[in-house]
Structure formats: structure tokens, C-alpha cells
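Sequence only, no structure available. Ideas?
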Amino acid sequence: MRPLWLFSIAVLMAMVAVTTWASLEANVLVGFQRLLADRWGVATLCDAYFGFVWFWLWILYKEADLGRGLLWLLLLFALGNLAMAAYMLIQLHRLPPGAGVDALLLRRAG
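Reply:
I predicted one. C-alpha cells follow.
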């Protein structure tokens, strides 16, 4: 599981860095308007948000509470891969020592 920990931490750090860097040029709304003005920008947004929904379906499967699942959907839509990395780190932290990938991916009983 160590590679998943390292990858999740790397994604979290990279997204904080690139988001901070982008914010120094323009606020998110200006950047969003620029993105929507370009067809490839729209295609990239669609690709990203469909990916967020795929990840969210796994979250919905894992979480017993629909409210918590909906909160994660909002976090995914607002924060993207920052939220994905955070969710993965939370799931990895909850695993018992020596747990396999099945314990990470599958719903816990109870």
C-alpha cells in the first residue's frame, strides 16, 4: 500500500502547488471563462468531471451514509484531484496493518 500512499501524497502536493501557481495569475473564475472559450478546454473539463463521477461511484459504494457520499461529490466537483487524493489517504489510513487491496477497494462489513 506504500505506493498508493506516496502517489496520493504526491498528487495532493502537486495539485496544491499548481493551484497556487495558477491562482497567482488569475482567480479561478477568470481561468474558468478562458477554459470554456476553448473547445479543448470544454473537452478537458468534461473528461475531468466524468472521471470525478466514476471515482464518486466508488465512494458511494464504499460509504454507508448517503449524506457523506453527497458531501464527497461536492468536494470532488469543487476540488477535483485534491479531494480524490484526500479520500484515498483517508481510506488508506483506516486500513488495518497488512490489509490487502481488496480491503481498500471493497465495502467494509457493518
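The chain has a mean pLDDT of 93.
Hope that gets you unstuck.
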